Automatic annotation (TrEMBL):
Keywords: Signal. This is T9SS type A sorting domain-containing protein. It comes from the Bacteria. Residues 1-18 form the signal peptide. It comes from Polaribacter aestuariivivens. The lineage of its organism: Bacteria, Pseudomonadati, Bacteroidota, Flavobacteriia, Flavobacteriales. Residues 734-796 form the Secretion system C-terminal sorting domain. NCBIfam families: Por_Secre_tail.
Length: 798
């Protein structure tokens, strides 16, 4: 019998876990032998199909069962096939030479991995360890050559599962907001090799739905090494955008990925297809933002611009570093929530309109809001001035010293001091002054050296309690204040919010620098005009008692100018006079439930902080105290019964032309100007109609001219009744009779007990002052007797 030599093969994995095929549970299938351990099956076949399972009896170190081949061919072979890749470090070999043919060669050929063939020379009954150090093999082919007839076999095979790429799972996204999300993965196995890198790859789904390392538009975020759960906080994402992402891990065998997952950031993100805010294609998702949207403006090549006519809205807006948002003239933006400003935020204006911005929440971040306020100028020193206020908080006045006009050491910017002498109320800063920041809601006069914009850079006033400023009832009682917001404010809402005894009247006065051919003049606004004060616009109020007035967020609006006509139409008259150079106006409104007396917020005096040598105004139809009104509001009924006293200031010799513009009066109603000096009535409501006179005396008050609204014809027999005449106290020593014109009159004064304390006669001139004797404090009755009748009125001396 031939001597049987056994080949013992030792296979060792690179991991600490190993398995040994010792054939104790093997199956002899006749032509092959198989054994399965730990999910791995080894199948042994021979070139002669005679693989056999037998008890080796401990031959040359074998134990238990062995697998062998019996052949008479000196080029026999054996093949071992594994169901999964394994690592083989070495093989322990045995062989027998039955016919004395001498030394044979044994060749080990691997399949799988990048491994080399190993050839060893052997002699009969010789055993030795052959070092292989193979990895990732699935087949070992063993062949014999040379020498005589050979027989050989195998016993224990010690192996481990081969090193593979890692096993990774991708976890669902969490903490997803408009520009950030938390992405995670789990490395459940390292594949028998150390993890050298792990992390997340992600991309915008529309750009790459299957992100991999190095893929198009893919961002890789690394997270160290090792197995287990890991997560990454991803920032800088585009709002309202769907992303695809995957977890990955790398070892020496390659890169593994989990399953691609997706998430969508909240809000909307700016894409920058073009700069038009109102173009839906610029946003992700592709709809124009609404009030509930949270927006992110990233640093893109093309950045958003809110153009004229666009009323943009959002809930929250984040402007990222190096990004920008612009509101152009005539555009507007309302943020219902908060602004996070880390880039550039610009609001523009020009000579005709302004950008407007309302922020209802808070402002954060390192960036300012820049309001570029356009101002004209003039080469004439007294012209080109503007009343301004800062529309933001934190702007330094010194920053404008290089932009304003100069006069010696004075700079063309000044606050108003109402206790100063008349010609020094504007307290101009000197070039050596360091006045610091603009006071919120304070008005300043300012003139630019060159027409253009001033950049008010700072933060938006967002105090829910509003912005308050003290007004002082000192000096002439006028206080320059202004709109502290980068939006318009409603003057009517502002005045209605003022405490009842704070101001002498609910009126604001603004400086119109372009009026009268650039000479400029003060214009008057009240609740009847519903005027919208522009961002950064200053104006005057007149204080009755010192205390605060407050601008609130609720007063903000995006609509500029006079907007009353957008409401229910009302009858109204604009009465004008011109001397051929200047044009002056006064307004009369007719509104339901108003009176012929003084209606605070609807009747407004002319601005008296400056001289008015040329002017037109009215006085109250009844109960006048001599207020020269720029605006008078009357009831919208009984037009025939209301005769309006008209006053003018004009020098002797001037040629004056009256004209008017009337709207919304009932059909058939006519408007006449009465001239008591010339005993004429002239209709001036028809197209191209006017009344022209040359003054033979200087006019400074009422009494000569009256305005009639009537459906009947008028004649010189129509007289002004005593409803237009008023008697009131100027001070403790003087009373004034107002509204009589060139009539003989007598005035008598009686104590409350009926004792006459004064009686005097005079010829009226429109306005007549009567000096009182030294009278005690108390109540007195004044009796006025005229050619038209009698008038009795009570006065109180204090």
């Amino acid at each position: 019998m031939k001597k049987i030599t056994f080949l013992l093969i030792l296979l060792i994995a690179q991991t600490s876990i190993s398995q040994t095929f010792n054939w104790e549970t093997a199956t002899d299938n006749g032509t092959n032998v198989t054994e399965t351990l730990g999910g791995i099956t080894a199948t042994v076949t021979t070139s002669n199909n005679d693989a056999q399972l037998a008890n080796g009896g401990g031959f040359d170190g074998s134990s238990g069962n062995v697998v062998f081949t019996q052949n008479s061919d000196n080029s026999a072979s054996m093949t071992i096939t594994f169901s999964t890749a394994v690592n083989v470090l070495s093989i322990f070999k045995f062989i027998a030479d039955a016919d004395g043919g001498g030394e044979s060669n044994i060749v080990f050929t691997p399949t799988g991995g990048s491994n080399s063939i190993v050839t060893e020379g052997i002699t009969q009954s010789a055993g030795e360890v052959v070092t292989l150090n193979w990895t990732n093999i699935t087949v070992i082919n063993i062949t014999l050559s040379g020498g005589g007839t050979e027989s050989f076999g195998i016993d224990d095979i010690v192996l481990g599962i081969a090193v593979t790429a890692p096993t990774v799972t991708t976890t669902a996204a969490s903490s997803v907001v408009n520009t950030s999300a938390t992405l995670a993965g789990n490395i459940t196995a390292d594949g028998g090799d150390a993890i050298t890198d792990r992390g997340i790859v992600y991309s915008i789904t529309s750009e790459n739905a299957n992100p991999t390392i190095g893929g198009a538009n893919v961002i890789q975020d690394t997270n160290g090494t090792g197995t287990g759960v890991f997560s990454e906080s991803i920032t800088g994402l585009a709002a309202g955008t769907q992303y695809s992402f995957n977890a990955y891990a790398i070892n020496g065998q390659g890169t593994s990925y989990g399953t691609v997952a997706t998430f969508t950031t909240t809000g909307k993100g700016w894409l920058g297809i073009n700069s038009n805010w109102a173009d839906a294609s610029n946003w992700s998702p592709n709809t124009i933002p609404i009030l509930t949207d949270n927006l992110v403006i990233p640093n893109t090549t093309i950045l958003p611009v809110i153009n004229s006519g666009t009323n943009a809205v959002a809930n929250d807006i984040t402007i990222e570093t190096s990004s920008s948002l612009t509101i152009n003239t005539g555009g507007s933006l309302t943020i219902e929530g908060n602004l996070s400003q880390n880039g550039t935020f610009t609001i523009n204006s020009d000579a005709t309109s302004n950008g407007s911005f309302i922020l209802k929440g808070t402002q954060s971040g390192v960036g300012n809001v820049d309001y570029h306020r356009f101002l004209t100028t003039s080469g004439i020193s007294t012209q080109g001035w503007h009343l301004v206020a800062s529309p933001v908080d934190g702007k330094n006045i010194n920053d404008f010293f290089g932009d304003v006009a100069t006069n010696g050491t004075k700079r063309g910017i000044a606050p108003y001091i109402n206790t100063n002498a008349a010609t020094f109320k504007w307290n101009y800063y000197l070039n050596t002054d360091t006045p610091g920041f603009f006071t919120n809601a304070k008005g300043y006069t300012l003139k630019k050296s060159i027409a253009g914009t001033l950049n008010f850079s700072g933060s938006v006033n967002t105090n829910n309690a509003g912005v308050s400023i003290q007004v002082d009832a000192t000096g002439d009682q006028f206080n320059a204040i202004g709109n502290p917001y980068p939006s318009y404010i409603n003057s009517g809402t502002f005045l209605d919010n003022v405490p009842g005894t704070r101001l002498t009247e609910k009126t604001i006065w603004l400086w119109d620098t372009e009026a009268n051919g650039g000479v400029g003049e003060y214009i008057t606004k009240n609740s009847a005009t519903a005027y919208k004060v522009a961002p950064g616009q200053g104006f005057f109020v007149k204080a009755l008692n010192t205390g605060n007035v407050t601008f609130t967020e609720a007063m903000q609006t995006h609509v500029g100018g006079d907007t009353f006509l957008k409401q229910e139409p009302r009858p109204e008259i604009t009465l004008s006079i011109t001397d051929g150079i200047s044009v002056k106006n006064t307004e009369i409104f007719y509104i339901k439930n108003k009176t012929t007396g003084f209606d605070d917020g609807y009747d407004s005096s002319m601005f008296s902080g400056v001289a008015n040598p040329f002017a037109v105004y009215t006085q109250l139809v009844t109960n006048s105290k001599g207020e020269n009104l720029a605006i008078q509001t009357l009831p919208n009924v009984d037009y025939n019964s209301m005769i309006v006293p008209v006053g003018i200031n004009a020098s002797k010799g001037k040629e004056i032309t009256f004209s008017l513009h009337a709207n919304n009066f009932p059909d058939g109603l006519k408007i006449f100007i009465e001239d008591k000096e010339n005993n004429t009535f002239t209709r001036i409501d028809e197209s191209n109609s006017n009344y022209k006179i040359t003054l033979n005396t200087t006019q400074n008050g009422i009494g000569r001219f009256y305005l009639h609204t009537t459906s009947a014809a008028l004649s010189v027999d129509t007289s002004v009744n005593l409803n237009n005449v008023s008697v009131y106290k100027i001070n403790s020593n003087t009373i004034r009779i107002n509204g009589l014109y060139k009539e003989k009159a007598k005035i008598s004064i009686f104590s409350i007990l009926g004792k006459q304390v004064l009686s005097t006669s005079f010829k009226s001139s429109g306005i007549n002052d009567v000096q009182l004797p030294n009278l005690s404090k108390g109540v007195y009755l004044v009796k006025l007797i005229t050619e038209k009748g009698e008038l009795t009125q009570k006065i109180i001396l204090e």
